[in-house]
Structures are given as structure tokens and as C-alpha cells.
Specification:
There is one protein chain. The protein contains eleven helices and 14 strands. The protein is an alpha+beta fold. The protein folds into three domains: 10-155, 2-Layer Sandwich (60s Ribosomal Protein L30, Chain: A); 159-196; 197-326, Arc Repressor Mutant, subunit A (Orthogonal Bundle). It has a five-stranded mixed β-sheet with strand order 2-1-3-4-5. Strands 10-11-12 form a three-stranded antiparallel β-sheet. It has a two-stranded antiparallel sheet with strand order 6-7. Helix 8 (236-248) packs across helix 9. The longest helix has 28 residues, at 297-324.
């Protein structure tokens, strides 16, 4: 097969890609040809040589073709020269940052069916695609789009330009990926939720419980609680209980304040202390009145942490709500 540019040898690039990826497949062929075409269109002739600092590639799918693109271009997430956007599309954009020239290459869906016409004797459709993709004209394989890509300073290769601490989880965030929420700085996981939860630790849940509409105004209502092993540990009601104990110095009075029985208040406290593994309330027996009670230092510290979490979530939700329903 003739390549579009003599700088690129299709067969050798495909062999190297297969060696790295581990097997030969239609996606490897598409990825190699897509890369050759994209690099040529943006005037990158030596992507692993003199042009390596000029190229950034944006990939839109986590499939075999992406490994081929990385193999041909030398771009990678670790070098910050490959950017991944999980669009689920067999497409990639090649950007020459020195010339500010970019092209997006999209694999055509109907190429799958056309591949069969090239090798009708091959019964296995994937084998037919593999062989056909090697020889099909670019016009039948790809849609080519000249595009404009505005790359932010914080997305460029090089040393990190920032290093800040999340006010909620305490983990550090690089390259301006943090989210500002009024007076707080949060990582994306704390601000928006993430892909993991810690099985061995408490889980924090946020649940919108009602949205009320009054004339032209919208209000958002929310609820926040903490669980461990799928059992609730702490939430708004138990927060009120601890606050009332701190205010009145009495479990009995605190129970009356939040309209629960003295016995139920005791049950809540014992359950929280057992599951959290800390002592929340220091109490003195005193007959029917329930005696005096104060929050321990650990109890007060935990309550303050929860209140900060609640404030941060409410601020974030309010900000998001106003933006969405503006």
C-alpha cells in the first residue's frame, strides 16, 4: 500500500504497533493509518524526532486504535502530549502547536460494510476488515476536518505550574485542576464525585430530596449523611443531637429539643461511638433527668468536620444549581 508521505512506512509502523499492543487487529490498522494521515496534514514529519515538541494528540476512545496512535506518534499521557476525552468515538485530533494547525480524523462507520466488498471470500468479518483497512482509500476510511484547538497553558507539557491542597480530603492537586468554591479549594473528586469509594472507611452520601418552585424562584433542598458498611452513621438529625448536647449540657434536654426520647438519644450516641470508633459524649449518670453531658474533644472535632463538609457541599450544590437553572 502506498502511504501519503514517504517519511512514514506503513508496514514497519504497523509491525511496531502490534509489538507494543500485543496483537494485530482492525483497530491497529486504523490507528496507524489515521496517525500517518493526521501527522501529514499538520506538517509533522518526525513525531519522535525534531517535531516531538510540536505535537499534541487528542484521542476520543480507549480502544486498540489509541495504542496504535501512541506507537506511531510517540505521544503519551505521561508526557502530556496525548489528551484523552472519553467520547466513545473512533477519532483523533492532531495539533501542531508551533504552527497552530489541527486536523480531526474520524473513522467512517460505513467502512465496516465496504471492507467486505474488498475481500468477499473471507468469511470472518474482522479478518476482512483487517485486510481491507490496509488498502482502502483514505476517502472511504476517514472523514477529515480542519479544526481549531485552544490549548490552555496548564495543559501544555512541562513541569507542574501549581500544587494546591484540597480543603476537604487533604490530597494535593496539580496544574489548576482544583475547583474554587467560595472560600474553599476542592479537588474534582470531592467537588463532583469520583470513580471510587473507600471500602474500609466511611462513605459520604449527598441526595437531592426535593426541588420546590415558588412563582419565578427555584430552591434546592438536599440531605447529606455518612455510612459505613452500608449502615448510616451520621447525618443531619444526629448532628442536631450533638449540637443540642453541646448547648444544654444534658442528653435529656437535648432529646427534648429535637423531639426524640431519652432512650433513643442514648441509642444514637452508642451506635455512633461504636461505628466511628471514637468517644463523642462524656456523660454522668443522674437518675431520671439523665445527668449532665458534654461533647468530648473528639466529638467536637468530628462535629466541626461534618459541619464544614455540609457547608462545602451546600455551597457547591447552590453554585451548580444557579448555573444550571440560570
Amino acid at each position: 500500500m502506498k502511504t501519503v508521505n514517504s517519511n512514514f512506512n506503513f508496514q514497519s509502523l504497523l509491525e511496531e504497533s502490534v509489538r507494543i499492543h500485543g496483537h494485530l487487529c482492525p483497530g491497529q490498522v486504523l490507528g496507524v493509518r489515521m496517525s500517518i494521515l493526521g501527522l501529514t496534514k499538520v506538517n509533522i514529519l518526525e513525531p519522535k524526532g525534531k517535531d516531538r515538541k510540536s505535537l499534541i494528540v487528542y484521542v476520543e476512545i480507549d480502544r486498540c486504535a489509541t495504542d496504535a496512535i501512541q506507537s506511531v506518534t510517540g505521544c503519551s499521557l505521561g508526557h502530556r502530549t496525548m489528551k484523552f476525552f472519553d467520547y466513545g468515538k473512533m477519532a483523533a485530533t492532531f495539533l501542531n502547536i508551533k504552527e497552530n494547525k489541527a486536523v480531526r480524523i474520524l473513522a467512517k462507520e460505513d467502512a465496516r460494510q465496504k471492507a467486505k466488498d474488498y475481500f468477499p471470500d473471507i468469511e470472518d468479518k474482522y479478518k476482512a476488515q483487517l485486510e481491507a483497512y490496509k488498502i482502502m482509500p483514505e476517502s472511504e476510511l476517514f472523514e477529515i476536518m480542519d479544526v481549531k484547538v485552544e490549548i490552555r497553558h496548564e495543559d501544555l507539557p512541562g513541569r507542574p505550574i501549581s500544587h494546591v491542597k484540597c480543603d476537604l480530603c487533604g490530597e494535593f492537586v496539580q496544574d489548576l485542576r482544583e475547583i474554587k468554591c467560595t472560600d474553599k479549594t476542592l479537588c474534582k473528586h470531592c467537588a463532583e464525585g469520583g470513580y471510587y469509594t473507600l471500602q474500609s472507611e466511611q462513605k459520604v452520601f449527598f441526595e437531592p430530596v426535593a426541588m420546590q418552585i415558588s412563582h419565578n424562584d427555584l430552591e434546592i433542598r438536599s440531605k447529606l449523611w455518612i455510612e459505613k458498611e452500608n449502615e448510616p452513621i451520621f447525618g443531619r438529625g444526629r448532628k442536631f443531637l450533638l449540637q443540642a448536647i453541646d448547648k444544654y449540657g444534658s442528653i435529656n434536654q437535648a432529646a427534648k429539643e429535637i423531639n426524640i426520647s431519652y432512650r433513643k438519644a442514648w441509642s444514637y450516641i452508642n451506635s455512633m461511638e461504636q461505628r466511628l470508633g471514637i468517644k463523642l459524649v462524656e456523660r454522668q449518670t443522674g437518675g431520671k433527668s439523665g445527668g449532665g453531658a458534654i461533647l468530648t474533644n473528639e466529638g467536637r472535632y468530628f462535629l466541626e468536620k461534618y459541619e464544614k463538609l455540609e457547608d462545602g457541599v451546600n455551597e457547591l450544590i447552590d453554585k451548580k444549581f444557579k448555573w444550571i437553572f440560570r
